Amino acid sequence: MLYKIASFNTKKLGRSSKRDFEKIAQIIVEEELDVVALQEIYSGDHSVKRLLEQCVKYELYGWDFCCAVPKETSDPEKMSDMLENDSRSEGYAYLWNKKRFKLLEFTKLGKRSVFEPRIINSLSRDVAADCSLFARTPYYIRLQPVHGGFFELRLIDVHIYFGDRSLSSVAKRKLEFDVLTKAIYPGISERRYGQNRAAYTIAMGDYNLNIFSPLVRTQERNCYLSQVHTYSDGRETVQVLTVQDQLTTLKKPNPNYGLETARGEGEGYANNFDHFTYSPERSRFVNVSYQTVDAVQKYCGGDFAYYRENISDHLPIVMTVEI
Predict the structure, then answer these.
(1) Comparing C-alpha atoms, which of 323, 64, 296 is closest to residue 202?
(2) What is the SS3 assignment for 278?
(3) Which residues contact 258 (CB under 8 A, 6 or more apart)?
């Protein structure tokens, strides 16, 4: 069976009421998405509720959601940056189609329980890793299909620190990425809960790091990630891959020009910051593919200024898996 899992940085969703919620809903429904991981959620659950309840035309009232704000970093430089940019309340959200998925249910001590999505931190017991170095520690959810198999999806929503373009900020981004791929992802994917369900683990989100590709020109060229990491589980070497190298962020308008000129200056794409991470050995999909949804062209008629103002400065990315 095929499932479409998406990641979408929604650019401070909730900070301003000026958003085209209907267009966002249209993208979700017409792309036939099953689960969407969101980044940059600023109003708790208010903006997500508005998205689900307001867009009756697209029947998102048949979806479920959860939101959380991660613990703030202990890194003084990151804390200073978050205070300066007023991003301390920046959170995550998941949306999922209730016809296809629900929160994982399990029995513990004879009692039926439901897995509660949670921010991963050093005390959550999900992973053995120091998460205090993250500006925004990742958000973890476990979902099971309503129909179609005895398995679970373990999803990790990620938004890696940006800071600025200095080498020190890039080094902090790479450090967060290394902890994600070398500690958090292996810890989550290897964890056993005693239910004998097949488990498929995917991390996704805005990594603020590029994948190098000779066919894709990015604006920022000193911030590349390593696409392949390996670890040993004591018996075999396991690969962790980070994929999706198409450009996903919009170019920024030139502030030295007026609005009309800025529209032209801001057209086009800058970096491939949005990615998926998974292990082919641990998540043995029958088939897997991934793509960028060019929502500017497909849903906004190529109007970059409108998309940036009313939708986001990122494009959605989609991973289609067959289980």
Answers:
(1) 323
(2) strand
(3) none
Q: Find out whether 220 and 214 touch, Cβ atoms under 8 Å.
A: no
Residue 251: alpha-carbon gap to chain centroid: 20
- The answer to whether residues 158 and 180 touch, using CB atoms and an 8 Å cutoff, is yes
Distance CA 231, CA 240 (A): 8
Measured CA to CA, the distance from residue 104 to residue 116 in angstroms comes to 9
Compute the distance between CA of residue 255 and CA of residue 9 in angstroms, rounded to an integer. 23
Residue type, 134: F
Residue 90 CA neighbour count, 13 Å, CB half: 25
Please enumerate in sequence order all residues whose Cβ is within 8 A of that of 96, keeping only pairs 6 or more positions apart, or say none: 34, 35, 36, 63, 64, 65, 102, 143
Scanning the structure block, which residue is given the tokens 């208010």?
A: 46
Residue whose entry in the numeric block shows the structure tokens 């990122």: 314
pTM over 0.90: yes
How far is 65 from 113, CA to CA, in rounded Å?
A: 18
User: Alpha carbon 23 to chain centroid distance?
Assistant: 19
Residues 6+ apart with CB under 8 A from 286: 322, 323
Domain positions in the chain: 2-322
Alpha-carbon separation of residue 75 from 78, 99, 174, 177 (angstroms): 5, 42, 15, 16
Strand pairing partners for 97? 63
The CA–CA distances, whole Å, from 119 to 67, 126, 209, 211, 315 equal: 10, 10, 22, 26, 24
293 with 316: CB under 8 angstroms? yes
Q: What values do phi and psi take at 57, rounded to 5?
A: -55, -35
Say which CATH architecture domain 2-322 belongs to: 4-Layer Sandwich (3.60)
Q: What is the mean pLDDT of each run of 10 residues along the chain (323 residues)?
A: 97 84 95 97 85 83 93 82 76 97 88 92 83 93 93 97 94 97 95 87 98 92 94 91 98 62 67 98 96 97 95 98 97
Quote the tokens at residue 295: 């929502």
Amino acid at 279: S
Strand 228-232 relative to strand 237-243, pairing: antiparallel
